[in-house]
Write a structure and sequence with these properties.
459 residues
Amino acid sequence: MAKHDTIRALLKRGVSEELAEKVADSGLTLGDLKGLTASELCKKISTSEEIAAEILQLAGSKPKKAITSETSLKSKIEQLEVPRSVKDALIKRLSEREFTPTQIERILRMTIEEYERIKIDPCEAVGIVAAQSIGEPGTQMTMRTFHYAGVAEIYVTLGLPRIIEIVDARKTPSTPMMVIKLNEEYRNDKTKAHALASRIEATYPSHLGDIVTLPDEMLIRIEIDESAMEKRGLGIDDLIEKIKGQGKFNADIDLDEDGKSINIRPKEYSYRSLLQLRGRLTSTNPSSGILIAGIKDITRVVIRHEGDEYTLYTEGSALKDVIRIEGVDGARTRTNNINEIENVLGIEAARNAIINEMVNTLGEQGLNVDIRHLMLVADMMTVDGEVKQIGRHGIAGEKASILSRAAFEVTVSHLLDASLYGYVDELKGVTENVIVGQPIKLGTGDVELVAKPYGKVVD
């Protein structure tokens, strides 16, 4: 019997892989084992007599069939007291190969042991550990702004500034952007993807032709670029209607004789009115410009072919408006504006966005932080049902302890208010106990032992 045959035969009978290899390395076969005693075997493979006896017992038994029943395997795993994600991973991985009952029991036992090992100890200072675990890698992060991975045309804030934006819960990121995924009908069709991008990207008069000012005639002429109009699916009549429909547009508008230009004259005959009118027509600012088509907050759209589908990357973010557009896959579309996610999709989605943004930002710099630290930060920022910053206007400023709040910022104001209203500090946290110089209520400091005499004390 070849060496690998011996190993395979022993594994089928429930012998561990390590011991099976020891037996095979000693030159023994399954037939040889039947003629040995436990003491003889322990000398040949350098192990204890108890283990040798167990090997001989298993070697003499019939091969055990691998557990092939997916139902029985699933029921075993479902009984484990581990997270759902761990159970799903076990079911997936164990179903891919055949294992003996002994091997499966060993895998499940090792899983439970590992899970128990990585659990946080009671009274552990998880906040301090999380702060240090995120803060230390933060010192290695760059202060620069990089372009979005693989999209040279879209620039977005990364590195330390992005981490600061996230934990400060800024209402709007410095470089808002979206990754828009398309549904089945649009994702593989280049023409439809381009048409969708044109419907999303904000279009202003300056995008549709040259704007020429003629002071002598007191008019402004828009010389239409037909290719730009066709690309966006617009006609001259649409453009005129959009411009006319703007509020407080105090001007007369008509089509030029050549049919390819639009003439606009201010109703008030003055150069000041002419310049103001030109400013509105040439502006691409969402607050002051004249929006002809698209979504005002989306200033640019870049189309990329990734894998087997087209994906849109945008400068600017408008999640609520974008997911309503036909052709957009709202379930896979994402934005880096966490406040917008909270308003549109709710607090749980905002929590996940905080975690994902921090993981991606740290990962882009090649830094690996245990996700549980980032989850703790996200939980603290969203626990009250709204996204709060980690600072004096958020979590740090709302702590129950006066001394803890005073130690963070605006010390005098907190102490004066506490004195004025007669607040009491119960000294339950870390900071306040350090300030007053007594053991903190964490770790061994949380345990108090009191010896009470029971019955007669024996000397």
